[in-house]
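DM from R.C. (forwarded with permission)

"hey, sorry to bug you on a friday — could you get me a structure for this? deadline for the figure draft is monday and I only need the backbone to look sensible"
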Amino acid sequence: MPVIRQIAQMGHPVLRQISVSIPDPTDSAIRVLNEDLLATIRYSHGVGIAAPQVFESLRMVIIASRPNPRYPHAPEMDPTTLINPELLWTSEEVESGWEGCLSIPGMRGLIPRHLSVGACFQTLAGEKREVEFTGFPARVFQHEFDHLNGLLFIDRLESLHNLLTEQEFVRRTE
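My reply, with the result:
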């Protein structure tokens, strides 16, 4: 039975570590972690999650964009688990958008991200795949990929004036 995991909060050292590769994506412990991450993301109303956010310094993320209370306009997509993801390319076009993070509750930042990215990864079956993310899913991928490299969205702020409380963000976007 999947477990809703506690989310590491900003300031915890696990969020600043470079995570380690997963040698065997088919390992049963990785399947359990995947199910726990899916349960945690649903419970927390996230659109993506990285293993370091649940205190597992492993190169694994889930992109699971869907409308929810935190992101009411997020596009619907099936959850995608990416094990040992690599960023292959980024578009030249960059756009700033508001991001939040389960590890930094109550805050939003206006963050520049590439509009499209190419990535390769392994599946839970150990198969290698390549994918292109565009728009909001590309933003989510870049956000989660940063977690694997010890970065938080606040590290990408161009100005502290682009950091808001969740309450002020909601007020401005109503």
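R.C.: lifesaver. Helices lie at 28-44, 136-148, 166-173.
me: no worries. The chain has one domain: 13-173.
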